[in-house]
Amino acid sequence: ATPNAPRGFVDSRKGPEPGNIANKIQRRRVYLEQKAAKNKDKRSRREARQKEAEDSAEPVPKKIPKTIENTREFDETVVDPDDDEVMHDQLTDELSNHLQGRPTKIMITTSVKAKGPDTYKFGELLATVIPESKFFSRRGFELKTIVKQASDKGFSDLIVINEDNKKPNALIICHLPDGPTAHYKLSSIKYPKEIANHGRATMHYPEVIVNNFHTRLGHQIGQSITLPLCLSSCDKLDLVFYPHQSFSFLFVYR
Fold first, then answer.
1. Whole-prediction pTM value?
2. Helix or strand or coil: residue 209?
3. Prior bond of 180 cis (ω within 30°)
């Protein structure tokens, strides 16, 4: 249908739009007919290409499907991880003390008024995924007090889980004692019990895999979220971070 077309408008080129048909049975029938016609046209074009390739003396070049990676426009902010300037930035930025072999010990807590059971469930889940981490209930303490106590007890990082409507909606990751601090919004969480045939978490140190953090800011973000996770690697557990369209996805594999 053309833009701003009235309900029930029929485009003579494509037939009626299924979304404009009120009757459910009729709508599904039209949808299946259009889908079958589309598949038939696609199959006929594929057979025509195969026949053309067989009749042609020269090999027909294989078509390369369009993906996000091969259609990406040149971005001047993308840098080589082995570049001298990038390596110098990593050795002189706020995370340089963490890169010098500082032992990792992480405190996980919630926002001051967190009451949702999912927030505490998520905190306990993080404590099983992140090595050398412990989950503590907030109990109304001020954040300044928690930061000072965590630093005095040898914690290298602090993770605060924020909630909204009794659901976790954000993470604050602070490298102690002087930062930097990063804020991440949580858009969705899928717990292990919601995944079919899921495995049980183990106490092994994970191997952290960071993909597509190619810009200078991406390198810094990648370091800030991976440095608290491990200082050694193991083949029992994989944590994969993948950024896409301003979102960072975390996948846990065993």
1. 0.58
2. strand
3. yes
